[in-house]
Amino acid sequence: MMRLFPLLCLLLAACATAPTPSSLAADDAAIRAHGQTWLKHYTAGDLDALMALYTDDAVVALHDQPALRGKPAIRAYFARSAGKADVTFKLDIEQIDINGDLAWITSKYWLRSVSNGSGYVYEDAGRSLIIYRREADGVWRLAADIDNNTPDVTMETMPGGTS
């Protein structure tokens, strides 16, 4: 009996900390909604609200440029364009995994941005790996966003077109 006691304690601890289906569903919904919340704040040019979606130590690694590390660098990058364009953004989540206070998605993305001032059109499509971390306040925040171009995700494959 004494040999089974440690095993029983381990099993009880695992059951006590296992997430419930309802908490997993709520986490999944919060993470899926994050992209639309990001787009709303970016389009409005609300940098404070946009930065609230990131962890303090977040990394954003967009193709063709050095990685942005931390909120000040991310904010400076987005300050140049946030709220200054008509944006169409679509995200097709291919996979989402939640493991405790970490979650990640892999997705296809399409972005078309038309500058309000000059009419300059910027288009980008590809795949992303986005990592979220639930922080002490219980809120899921973006910890890493890594984008890359892939030959099977192009502007021509954008669902519903660019309008």
Describe this structure in words.
With 163 residues, this protein is α+β, with helices and mostly antiparallel strands. It is 32% helix and 38% strand. It has four helices and six strands. Strands 2-1-6-5-4-3 form a six-stranded mixed sheet. Strand 4 (102-115) and strand 5 (121-134) form a beta hairpin. It is globular and about 50 Å long. The N and C termini lie far apart (68 Å). The relative contact order is 0.15. Residues 4-16 have low confidence and may be disordered.
Q: What kind of sheet is the major sheet?
A: 6 strands, mixed
Work out the radius of gyration: 19 Å
Strand arrangement, major sheet: 2-1-6-5-4-3
> How many beta-strand runs?
6
- Amino- and carboxy-terminal Cα gap: 68 Å
Judged by helices, strands and strand pairing, the structural class is: alpha+beta
Which range best describes the helical content: under 10%, 10-25%, 25-40%, 40-55%, 55-70% or over 70%? 25-40%
Shape descriptor = globular
- Tally of helical runs: 4
